[in-house]
DNA sequence: TGATTGATTGACTCGTCAATCAATAAAAAT
DNA sequence: ATTTTTATTGATTGACGAGTCAATCAATCA
């Protein structure tokens, strides 16, 4: 093989090109040829490495999910208190490179893909569970038994802001979205203004 | 056909068949032939009445938006207080015939369509604005200047619950969704400070 | 050096689908 | 009764796209 170890590079290039193409087209109606051309190779080679269009799409999806997971992990790493942990998740959700027109369009279309493709559904379910778990873990010390429920609400809210962002017209930027989320989440916590109340409840719970 | 005035019937049948097909396929990759067959006619006739696939899809979209608008209007009609008006909107959002797997799948795909189709984008924008307006109108007497902001949050939350519902696994029913929304909205209203804390502690104990 | 093997592609197949059209049937209008 | 209008479809066309394959090309290894 000429130039050994080209495979991972090609795969990476194809995955990135796929996300770009989906962003440009706004749908999954993206030809393998276009993806391959954007990645600088022939469509035959794309098939050679991935086996088929479906698997290219799934790889792109996994890539985005990993990207998001990494961002969450990185943001959470420096969080000390539950409140900081919660905010870290919000930051990860609305900071680049996640809250980009391209990536948001991809998310939206992955939801569509999950309608017909079991593996895509599985991936999204895993993402959803992990987000729920992270949120609940951060919320429990603050709101106790209500954590799961509130995590569900925040999760839905994040998804909602994402989908609305996909209609660029009248949508807000990542910073605005983050601010809105923070405000709303704040309202859901005990003693919205003073964090003291939160600590009280926290103490009572644990 | 002989039988004059068949056109509206055919159009209606095609629109309903389109929604069903989108629901079944989970995507917009729905052939005109399949739609037409389900509606009991040839694909050529579908083209004859609508001019093309795109316009069939847009007609289906308009149908769903009108359905939703009618439901909201109908629910709001009997509302006396702002709180009732607010609840009416929530009921309209999560009651059949709006909160159906079929219709939800259609919504999701219309968001995708809006990525590429200006008319679809326009329709969704109109829907969004109307929802925002209705929510704000109901909220203003309750929260004053914060109405617009809170309306935005509730709107996003509704969209988020919808999109999550589209992944049937682990999703909640319409009643649960409605209950969750009510609880959340309740927390966003004034007087929630006292009620909230009480509820919190109460919830922690039960 | 020469065999091996991965990398790479152009050309081709096969299927699908949107859109069109010519033809037919039948009610309505004249 | 004949013409017009509306309804309807089977057949066809033209385009496009996924996937395959046989054939190169070049680095590595024995």
From TrEMBL, chains A, B:
Pfam families xref list: TetR_C_6 (PF13977), TetR_N (PF00440)
Gene for this chain: betI
Protein's name according to its UniProt entry: HTH-type transcriptional regulator BetI
Ranges for domain HTH tetR-type: 8-68
Organism per entry: Litorivita pollutaquae
Gene3D superfamilies, alphabetized: Tetracycline Repressor, domain 2
Any one GO MF annotation of this record: transcription cis-regulatory region binding
DNA-binding region coordinates: 31-50
Pathway(s): Amine and polyamine biosynthesis; betaine biosynthesis via choline pathway [regulation]
GO biological process, one term: negative regulation of DNA-templated transcription
Coiled-coil blocks: none
Keywords, comma-separated and alphabetical: DNA-binding, Repressor, Transcription, Transcription regulation
Function: Repressor involved in choline regulation of the bet genes.
InterPro entries with a match to the protein in the record: BetI_C, Homeodomain-like_sf, HTH-type_TetR-like_transc_reg, HTH_TetR, Tet_transcr_reg_TetR-rel_C_sf, Tscrpt_rep_BetI
């Amino acid at each position: 093989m000429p130039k050994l170890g080209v495979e991972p590079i090609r795969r990476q290039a194809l995955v990135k090109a796929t996300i770009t193409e989906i962003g440009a087209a706004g749908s999954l109606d993206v030809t393998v040829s276009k993806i391959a051309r954007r990645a600088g190779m022939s469509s035959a080679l794309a098939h050679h490495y991935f086996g088929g269009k479906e698997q290219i799409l799934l790889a792109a999806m996994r890539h985005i999910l990993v990207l998001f997971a990494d961002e969450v992990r990185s943001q959470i790493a420096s969080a000390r208190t539950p409140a900081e942990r919660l905010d870290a998740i919000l930051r990860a959700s609305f900071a680049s490179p996640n809250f980009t027109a391209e990536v948001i369009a991809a998310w939206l279309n992955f939801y569509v893909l999950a309608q017909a493709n079991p593996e895509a559904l599985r991936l999204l379910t895993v993402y959803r569970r992990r987000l729920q778990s992270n949120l609940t873990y951060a919320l429990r010390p603050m709101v106790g038994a209500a954590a799961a429920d509130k995590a569900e609400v925040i999760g839905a809210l994040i998804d909602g802001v994402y989908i609305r962002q996909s209609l660029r017209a009248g949508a807000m930027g990542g910073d605005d979205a983050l601010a809105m989320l923070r405000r709303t989440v704040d309202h859901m916590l005990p003693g919205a203004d003073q964090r003291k109340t939160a600590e009280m409840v926290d103490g009572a719970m644990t």
